[in-house]
Amino acid sequence: MIPNGLCIGLDVDIDKFPQHLRGNINAIVEFNKEIIASTREYASAYKANSAFYEQYGVEGVKALYETRKLVGSHYFILDAKRGDIGNTSRAYAIAAFNDMGADALTVSPYMGEDSVKPFLNFPNKCVYVLALTSNAGSSDFQRLSVGGEPLYKKVIQTAMQWERVSELGFVVGAMHPSEMRELRGEFPDVPFLIPGIGAQGGDVQQLVRANYKGPALFNASRSILYSGNGSDFAEKARNEAKKIWDELKIA
Amino acid sequence: MIPNGLCIGLDVDIDKFPQHLRGNINAIVEFNKEIIASTREYASAYKANSAFYEQYGVEGVKALYETRKLVGSHYFILDAKRGDIGNTSRAYAIAAFNDMGADALTVSPYMGEDSVKPFLNFPNKCVYVLALTSNAGSSDFQRLSVGGEPLYKKVIQTAMQWERVSELGFVVGAMHPSEMRELRGEFPDVPFLIPGIGAQGGDVQQLVRANYKGPALFNASRSILYSGNGSDFAEKARNEAKKIWDELKIA
Question: The whole model's pTM is what?
């Protein structure tokens, strides 16, 4: 079952690491280990975006696998936005769910049903399909009107009809509280993964109200990870995580 | 510069390897080495789909990097269909273009301009944006009408307006010769990557005519790689590659 609450995004960037670890590819696992240990209490889930590991080549991918192990029994989302033709998506699903042991994976809907279906065949796993993302470019195609409705809504409506064994949720960015409110009217019980609080600037209170207590993980990454740059970085991260956790609880 | 002609997709599947290599993860590089050596003469480019390597975990990713080296001075496309918010796409671009040294990368347009832009900042590299893919699911969203035109066409029109340093091309699947003909009317000089000939069944002659000698790479994967299952697999692959190469030339 997907938990609700705060999701911490482990978006590693060795150039933003605290002084004593800065620039060191071999410190990725150590950095994540301290962050995870100090924030577990407030995190319902951890999310690793594959890109930030892949940018460091094979060593980075190794560190991603190690990081997944460190997350342990906490819920682990691989944010990789995968999607391809059927047998290829199946290979991505095996990589994420079987090899890495991710609990959930983000998937792009652009290629349609047979590109998402292979991900939906895994019991006790969750697929978050991109709907309305947190970036400005979300208006380029996701908001285009198809038959009187925006494409992102059509994506949700269509995907909800697909046969599935896995759980199904959607990515809805924190920058869109009014659209969130509207979506919750139509889909009150559908799990949302909500990136963009913290550094990307989404207003937590407004957002939580717009979500009407629907099942949701609210993700913050950089604002937590890089709130300190000294040897007390993990403690600073913990304080920042608690702050957001409190906001989510009060709202 | 992007070449034209036959692209060979190195879609590795150890369960389809020839008898003496079958099921052996450590044989991926050896398999690709023989395939590449025997087909170089007919291949204008090689394409590796990241999924087929990622499915074998860290060892698979290592084999992907090794495979890129084996391709050497031939044109190398990383087919990974990446795309994310700006700083994340930048990390994917670094992984593909700098770390791996790919000449081209496939990218998903769903998240819009700022998700594609970081890929477009690399001189002498090429970005293939997904337009109309080769799978049946391409009709679910890509063919939806937006303002009287199908979304896939809107994607091409929109992306062509984006500032860029990299070259820009589009993925148009081999299953859609009539749409290809129409697109060539509007975009005669835009590079297309055309997957789906061979195992996926696209008719080469019809397709080549529909392309009107526009700049294009026609990709075949499984039909070439797995045309033999004995120790002569590389020779069989060469014969199959030559067959398609002839068809492309004659058409």
Answer: 0.98
pLDDT score, position A184: 98
For residue B200, give how far its alpha carbon lies from the nearest alpha carbon of chain A (Å).
11
d(C-alpha A168, C-alpha A241), whole Å: 27
**Are B197 and B191 within 8 A, CB to CB?**
no
A105 chain-B contacts, CB cut-off 8 A: none
What residues form DSSP beta bridges with A220?
A8
d(CA B46, CA B40): 9
Q: Is B251 helix (H, G, I), strand (E, B) or coil?
A: coil
The dihedral sign for the CA sequence B115, B107, B91, A88: positive
Q: Which residues of chain A neighbour B110 with C-beta distances below 8 Å?
A: 108-110, 130, 133, 141-142
Domains in chain B with CATH codes = 5-250 (3.20.20.70)
Pairing of strands B104-107, A145-146: unpaired
User: Count of H helices and E strands in chain A?
Assistant: 10, 10
A81 or B251: which leads in pLDDT: A81
- Between chains, do A110 and B85 touch, taking CB under 8 Å as contact? no
pLDDT at B250 over 80: no
Angle formed by the axes of helices B177-186 and B151-159, to 10°?
30
In the structure encoding, which two tokens stand for residue A21, read together?
A: 């670890």
Tell me which chain B residues have a C-beta less than 8 angstroms from the C-beta of A88: 11, 49, 51-52
B119-131 pLDDT per residue, tens: 999 999 999 999 9
For chain B, count helices (H), then strands (E). Answer: 10, 10
Residue A110 is nearest to which of B91, B109, B114, comparing CB atoms? B109
Indicate whether this complex's ipTM tops 0.95: yes
Are B51 and A11 a contacting pair at CB < 8 A? no
Q: Closest partner residue to B111 among A56, A62, A133, by Cβ?
A: A133
Q: pLDDT at position B183, please?
A: 98
Distance in Å from the first CA to the final CA of chain B: 23
pLDDT for the residue A1 = 86
